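Exercise 7.
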Amino acid sequence: MADIVLKAENREAVGKNKVNKLRQQAIVPGVVYGKDKENINVQFTSRDFEKVLSQAGTSTIIDLDLDGEKVPVLIKDYQMHPFKSQFFHVDFQAINAKEEIRVTVPVYLSGRDDIRVEPSVLVQNIDTVEVECLPMYIPQYAEVVVTEMQIGDAFTVADLDIAKDENINILLEDDEVVCSLQEPQEEIIVDEEEDNESAADVPTVDETEEKEDEE
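Solution. The predicted structure, written as tokens, is:
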């Protein structure tokens, strides 16, 4: 089903101490979850997983080569060390080709560097969308072309390319704004000298009290 393969092994090591020893050897623990199936504990090298993740992301089906058996899965979630480049754990979702699945895919604004109206500011309101479809129809991303946008224009979920695909159901309202093109806001520069002069003109508390005493 998939062209991207991650070589893995069944994992016997469970428990914090044993799993930590795996991580020290640059081996990543993971679990394969499947509907009406027992969870499968797996392990694989950090190097192999990093390569697969860069290719597939979390919206492309990959084959988990589990001791020679190919298991189609999605990378559902992964955890990393807070400040080291180290994978802590990976969750995979087993795929049934005949069952619809929910997947989050990135939104891609095509042509954002070639917008004809300048100066302008492109504001992206939605970075990802959740879709529901059969595995064979999972899109890698949702796209809209923004090159010809004018100031004040906005694109909604209904304008995404996958919105026209009857095999894909986007789990957002059609009128949700994906992006808009706006005029840049002028930066107000405060003259420090004038600001200091204005502050100097304001009487202090002592000066105010002296004036009241004179009156």
